[in-house]
Amino acid sequence: MPELPEVETIRSCLEAHQGARIVKVEVKRADIIRRADFELRDLIGLSIKEVGRRGKYLDLVLSGRGHLILHMGMSGRVYQVEEPGQIEAPHVHLIIYLSNQAVIVYQDARRFGGVWLVKDTRDFFSHLGVEPLARAFNTDYLEKALKGRKIAIKTLLLDQRLISGIGNIYADEALFRSGILPDRPSGSLSRREVEVLVRAIKKVLRQGIEQRGTTFRDFRDGYNQMGGFQDHLKVYGRFREPCPTCGQPLERVRLGGRSTHYCAHCQH
Ligand SMILES: [Zn+2]
Questions:
Q1: Distance from the alpha carbon of residue 73 to the mean position of ligand 1, in angstroms
Q2: pTM of the prediction?
């Protein structure tokens, strides 16, 4: 599933279209529109003022105060093509034609994602927690969020209401880099461990962005190209491979319904 670094990678690709006007919109599957505060045809003539991101949501801020919000779900892609003839994928649900001749395509084979036409995002994004790369996400914030909680630390990191943008891959990687077992009760972490974990989360997300995201299966960037962070993963997807630190085989369990990778020797 695209997480913060993947959505950020798409966002930076699409920034090139800031200022372009929407000239035509085609919807192939109407049920991909999850909410519409205004009509789809109202998008025509509006320009893209800004390409933003909040958590795992891509936020196209339009002139006239509207927002076109996209979520990639499990398998979604948002990318630009120069020619409509390049749209070859079978699961394209939305096509946006821009005044600069670019065409932006939204496709999602498994349809866990969606498109929202939103007038005011304050309410729409109000359920989302702090951005993990923001200063507001720090040792004090996480320590307070963990206090007294019995829930596994990994499960807590995935709670978008507390921290928005971390998913399965970057949670496993950050916990490995912190030496913390994913199933540790959240409240059992020492302040020192919380500090190390916060630093590891920020670092692994920044590295993910630098490498243009992780392509495990479906992810493609805003040009429909694969990311590069999959070559830098230390534990995710490496069940039974030797731990890069100690050489012991890596473990995999299901935790909170999610496949979880760790080293039983290096993480405590
Ligand atoms: Zn190890």
A1: 32
A2: 0.95
